[in-house]
Amino acid sequence: MEIGAFYLPVIGNIEEIEKGMAGKRTDLYQQMLKELTEQAQYMDAHGYYGMGTTEHHFHIEGEEVSTNPVLLDLYIGMQTKNLKVGQLGNVLPAHNPVRLAEDIAMVDQMTGGRAFAGFARGYQPRWVATLGQQIDGMAKEPEIGAQAYDNLKRELYEDHFEIIMKAWGRDTFSHKSKFWEIPPANTYWATHDVTRKYGQGVDDKGYLTEIGIVPPTYNKRMPDLFQPFSVSERSIVWAQQNKVTPITIITDVPTAQEHIRAAQKAAADSGTPYRMGMTREIVVADTDEEARAIASRAGAYVWCNFFQPFGFNAAIMKKGEDPFTIKNDFETIEERGLVICGSPDTVKRKLEKLFKDLPCDYFWLFTYNGLIPQNKMMRHFELLTEKVLPHFTDKIR
Q1: In 183-302, at which residue ranges do the beta strands (DSSP E only) sit?
Q2: Quick one: DSSP state of residue 391?
Q3: 316 near 335, Cβ under 8 Å?
Q4: Which helix (H) or strand (E) holds 346?
Q5: Which domains does the chain have, with CATH numbers?
Q6: Which helix (H) or strand (E) is 342 found in, with range?
Q7: DSSP designation for 222
Q8: DSSP state at residue 35
Q9: Do residues 223 and 168 make contact, with C-beta atoms less than 8 angstroms apart?
Q10: Which residues contact 205 (CB under 8 A, 6 or more apart)?
Q11: pLDDT at 190 (0 to 100)
Q12: How many C-beta atoms surround the C-beta of residue 257 within 10 A?
């Protein structure tokens, strides 16, 4: 089992966030970079798989300051040696897929093949509608309705994914769909003679037939692919069929087990390798009491105040429940298993049960930097690395 860490990342602690406009403060951003660097270098030295960050824009409040996860990947990659860096994930409907394929390929080259990629559909209209508005319908959810809007994002997601796979998998490619024509029809290329001699992708009349991104990924490899954070069986099945590792955040064991069985069947039916990822917020301290005190002011602050209004309690609901009526507090998300906190022995015991019920190939630590003081965070990593994770994987050293 591989162990990675997922970051929003957060800027500042609760007190700084509640002063207002934390996302606009240079001092807090520089502090975040310094703390992420120390954490990444520790993971790099101890066999962790990778570090991933989400993509969100306009977070002036400070909860998720990851405007460009690819650029943040490069920053972390330049200060580590073996740790993989990636996105969990890029919101494909709001992206130009060719540009995104190029950017990730460049990071992969610059880090010597350490980039991975995660792709999501997006859920925050403040930025998805703003940045995606050039695509008809992406800024019109109130007009077209929630279901039509979700269908549009799914169409774009799958179309953009196909384009990126072509860009990474072929020297040159073409693509025609509802949204894209690559290259556009009847595009004349003035230097077709040069391209015909030293490249490819033009016809005998000088019109483009294909394009290719440069550079390719490192040694033309396919990066590891992830889908964060899968809550529906449909999404998990699609991921398996397309050689993408879904990362489940579902805490209800019967539901998650159904998803695992569906993923296994999809992998078998499509002849693709079965891989499953999972995420939980883990907080380890020297005592149960200290860990719980830290955890109560960590992820729960963002989850209950910012994620829940978007329906995120679907991750912890049981069958028949409404995510908007579940009690929304730290005690509930801890009791339902989204947060696992305690001393090394306590966390080890809880993880033993979790991995028995829900085995996975990639376990992602949902990590709330900033909300946890850096000295407590580094102690958490030390205890986790030395006393907990070696019981579950030989990757950690």
Answers
A1: 225-230, 245-248, 277-284
A2: G
A3: no
A4: helix 344-357
A5: 2-300+336-391 (3.20.20.30)
A6: strand 339-342
A7: P
A8: H
A9: yes
A10: none
A11: 98
A12: 13
- Three-state DSSP state, 154: helix
Condensed to tens digits (0 to 9), the pLDDT of residues 138-183 reads 999 999 999 999 999 999 999 999 999 999 999 999 999 999 999 9
Return the closest-CA partner of residue 38 out of 390, 315, 380.
380
- Compute the average pLDDT of residues 94-111: 98
d(CA 192, CA 196): 6
54 contacts 40 by C-beta, under 8 angstroms: no
Three-state DSSP class for residue 120: strand
Segment 265-269 mean pLDDT? 97
Residue with token string 């319908």 = 137
Check: CB of residue 120 under 8 Å from CB of residue 227: yes
Q: Whole-structure pTM over 0.85, yes or no?
A: yes
Q: In angstroms, what CA-CA distances link 43 with 13, 83, 391? A: 22, 7, 17
d(CA 247, CA 276): 6
175-176 and 181-182: which strand pairing? antiparallel
DSSP 114: -
Q: What angle do CA 118, 377, 90 make, to 5 degrees?
A: 15
Classify 188 as helix, strand or coil: strand
CB 332 within 8 A of CB 316: yes
Residue type, 162: E
Give the rounded distance of the alpha carbon of 123 from its chain centre. 13
Radius of gyration of the chain (CA): 22
- Residue 129 identity (one-letter amino acid): A
Q: How many CB atoms within 10 Å of residue 106?
A: 17
Tokens of residue 272, six digits:
């693709």
14-48 pLDDT, tens per residue? 999 999 999 999 999 999 999 999 999 999 999 99
- C-beta of residue 290 within 8 angstroms of C-beta of residue 347: no
